[in-house]
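task queued by scheduler; priority normal; single chain, no ligands, no partner chains; default sampling; output format set to structure tokens
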Amino acid sequence: MKWEIKQFSSLTSTNTTARDYPAGSIIMAETQTGGRGRYGRVWQSPKGNLYVSFVFESDPKRDKYLSFLTGLALAESLPEFNVRLKWPNDVLLDGKKVAGILLETSGNKIIVGIGVNLVNNPEKNMLYPTANLGGRLSPIALVKRLMIQYDALFDVFDKKGFKKIRSRWLDLATGVGETISVHLPTEELIGTFKGISDEGALLLKVGKKVRSITAGDVFLI
């Protein structure tokens, strides 16, 4: 894919700005004044970390798997770190959150926002413990790695489908076969993480039944 990088010193949100750009655009900012995560949560955005949004043309075959493709692309862009993936779209370092992903639609485009704690990490009022990569990578260096990984993984997906992506994602996933807690809007479930379905849902064995979960917050026990 042909990419074009646009760099800004400060934006309200890279995802918001990305709505005005065509597919193939990469929107980067040194800081964000209104960065956001899943469910409208605040994404703190001090200088030094990576705040970037990739703009893709919507593809019905690929869209529902884009969070897995992105998580895998990010993890495989960090071979020098012992990072792991947590369903649905977090990247962990030593069991602590080091990166997050937010997907949003805009017309016929899918915008993938990525935040990575490169040099510092917020610690107060956080849903999960956090970590950073110790300043060993610059934002632009990581973005260039991501560009390469996206192209490679899209090629795998086009040729072999989600089955191959799922296998590679699970190889890096944390908590598979272990007891986890899943917080849903109306209940909390505790069970065994059995994997992910063909549609990307989390498979949780609760008692004798396996529940298929499409959205929720996962906590390791």
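post-processing summary
- Helices lie at 14-18, 66-76, 139-160, 162-171.
- The two ends are 40 Å apart (CA to CA).
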